[in-house]
Amino acid sequence: MIRALTAGNLNAYRSLWLHGLSADPSAFLLTAAEAVATADSALVAKLSAGEVIGAFDSEALVGFVALRRGGPERMRHMADVGPLYVHPSARRRGLARALLDAAVDAALQMGVLQLELCVDSQNLGAQVLYQACGFEQIGLRPRSVIVDGVARNDLLMLRQLDA
Questions:
Q1: In this predicted model, what pLDDT tens digit does every residue of 46-67 receive, in sequence order?
Q2: CA-to-CA distance for 109 and 103, rounded, in angstroms?
Q3: How far apart, in Å, are the Cα atoms of 8 and each of 4, 19, 90, 116?
Q4: Surface-to-core class of residue 149, CB atoms within 10 Å of its CB (0-12 exposed, 13-18 middle, 19+ buried)
Q5: Handedness of CA 119, 101, 85, 113 (dihedral sign)
Q6: Phi and psi dihedrals of 8, rounded to 5?
Q7: Which end of the chain is more exposed for a tag (fewer CB within 10 A), N or C?
Q8: Full set of structural domains in the chain with CATH
Q9: Distance of CA 114 to the CA centre of its chain
Q10: What's one Pfam family here (predicted)?
């Protein structure tokens, strides 16, 4: 089942987020320490605003994707996608694609015209998924993050929803 998360999913969301950060830290912008330091109230606000969509296996949260609409009025036509994470035990079942499809549907309901995301240039699996879901590379951000002293590049990808 795919659905928007609510404040009631706080503990499951935090747990899966922290698991993802330990299993695949390069897939996330924040470090594990930053995630641990994130106040419950900030996460509850994010969940209550419908900014996170979850994938469930029975009652267990096994994946999520965040969708954040631009804040200033002149940027309200676009939204950022990510992070997207699916627990390794739930991979290869189409859940990442289903989460992205749900994010597109949510964005369309909000009147968003384009979705944008960043993906590590070495994360080929994610790049293939995003391209299969209609995202195109529009740029490269060199040294977008430094992980354990190593500079990593991000690909900038975009999907126009009104094209």
A1: 999 999 999 999 999 999 999 9
A2: 10
A3: 11, 19, 22, 28
A4: exposed
A5: positive
A6: -65, -15
A7: C
A8: 2-160 (3.40.630.30)
A9: 15
A10: Acetyltransf_1
